[in-house]
Design goal:
Radius of gyration: 23 Å
Number of helices: 14
Structural class: alpha/beta
Strand order of the largest sheet: 3-2-1-4-5-6-7-8
Largest sheet: 8 strands, mixed
Shape: globular
Order of helices and strands: EHEHHEEHEHEHEHEHHHHEHEEHEHEE
Oligomer: single chain
Distance between the termini: 57 Å
Helix content: 40-55%
Bound molecules: ligand SAJ
Strand content: 5-15%
Amino acid sequence: MSVFDKKVGVIGLGYIGLPTALSLAANGVDVTGVDIKEETVASLRAGKVTFKEDGLDGLFAAAVAKKMTFSTEYPVADIYVVTMPTPYDEMTKKVDASFIVRAVDSVLDVMPKGAVVVVESTVSPGTIDEHVRPLFARHGFTLGADAHLAHAPERIIPGNMLYELEHNARTVGADEPEIAELIRELYGTFCKGEIVTTDIRTAEMTKIVENTFRSINIAYANELAKLCRVKGMDVQEVIRIANKHPRVNILSPGPGVGGHCISVDPWFLVGDFGSLAELTFAAVSVNASMPEFVLERISGIKEKYGIKDNSRVGLYGLTYKEDVDDIRESPTLQLLDCMKHHLASGVKVYDPFVKDDVCDGQMHDFDEFVNAVDLVVILVGHTEIKQRMSALEGKTVFDTRNVCPFAQEKL
Ligand code: SAJ
């Protein structure tokens, strides 16, 4: 039997689950997308995708033209792909597996014998053994006999998700080689990249390692920004030149690290391995210190340019990075938090992607925002600001993203 004869349930229709479900369906797999949020399912049933991403509307149309349904109920299926969020516990820094556990529990309530559960969510190494595996026995299943388990962590980057979904290499971890093959075939319906198979624990670890590697690289860039500031050097120029070396590739400094991956996953290593994860801890600490560093810079710049009132300071950008509408763990929100602690609130905030009011001082019109302030702090390099940069001429600009050619102040 091929995967085209199987029924697939994708559990959780968020940033990862929705594009994955749609890609499977658009390529001929019989998919039911499940989300417990009624408004998500209602919106998708009404033909409206739930977040912005290049190409998502087209993929949605291609999927619903084939075998794609949406439901709040867990279906009877042959393969379940679980794409639930995995936050970390603020106190212990360990992964919070409760969303996955609840989802797999609900799957096991309806799952027929012989089905496969694929955890796609990012988890720290050992999470599946500790939290997911025991659930099967509790529901009367024997793994490797009448139920199967796999881990296929996603790798797609918001902003370029659909391209990466199709072209990135992937990892599939499973206990049994034939299950690894089946899941490789499933992802192979839309993924043209190499699909590597391994065991579950290695798959868990590689995903965390990938995001930690990026976090450490960004932390190095951020540390360099601080060092260069002390010596009055331009960090961008230093990195640009250093990166001409064939074996050097330093990422860009910024106002902090946000999103639900790079800012979260490295903490799992810190939570699980303590002082053994010394370098990782140093890196996440440097990244976490950036909003405070930006706040100090803003104070200095206000003094230098005689800007007395915070209400004349405008923060451009609220999302965690450019051209996405996701504000989770966003550096701007972290900065606003720091400002509150320092009783330095009152600033204006604008982001073209954030239509709801999510913070004090938020404005919804670009021109009104620019006209209302003297100092513009660019915190996100959206295409919008790059295209409308001339509107900032005559203002004091503090550019934390290296997008404004005439900024008086840089990171
Ligand atoms: N950032 C910098 N400097 C840089 C690059 C990024 O400050 O040079 C900041 C961004 O502005 C943002 C944060 O880091 O605030 C994270 O953004 P990102 O673009 O680095 O990564 P994510 O979180 O959007 O996606 C990452 C990707 N992981 C890697 O590149 C190793 C993606 O492939 C993963 O699928 C995703 O995490 C995930 O879901 O785990």
